[in-house]
Amino acid sequence: MTKKTAHRQITNAQIYRSVASLTAIETGVSVQKIEQQLKQYQAQAKAVGLAR
């Protein structure tokens, strides 16, 4: 018999935090600042529509 495990849903906030923390380690910039930049770029990208 195999045991099924429930997988937790990964949220966008968790992705932003992990990317920001890894980038902060490499660059020396604060995690909060990088996280804000990621969210800002995401908002700008949503405003740009695809060419049809």
Can I get a quick summary?
With 52 residues, the protein is mainly alpha-helical. Helix content is 63%, strand content 0%.
Annotate the secondary structure layout.
Blueprint: H1 12-27, H2 31-47
Helix pairs in contact: 1-2
Task: Walk me through the structure.
- It is a single chain.
- With 52 residues, this protein is mainly α.
- Helix content is 63%, strand content 0%.
- It is built from two helices and no strands.
- It has helices at 12-27, 31-47.
- The longest helix has 17 residues, at 31-47.
- The model has no long low-confidence stretch (mean pLDDT 84).
Query: What is the molecular shape?
Result: flat
The biggest sheet amounts to:
none
> Which structural class matches the secondary elements?
mainly alpha
User: Roughly what is the average pLDDT, rounded to an integer?
Assistant: 84
Low-confidence stretches: none
Helical proportion? 55-70%
Total count of strands: 0
Q: What is the overall number of helices? A: 2
Order of helices and strands: HH
CA radius of gyration: 16 Å
Q: Separation of termini?
A: 51 Å
Approximate strand percentage: under 5%
Quaternary structure of the protein? single chain
List keywords for this structure.
52 residues; mainly alpha; flat
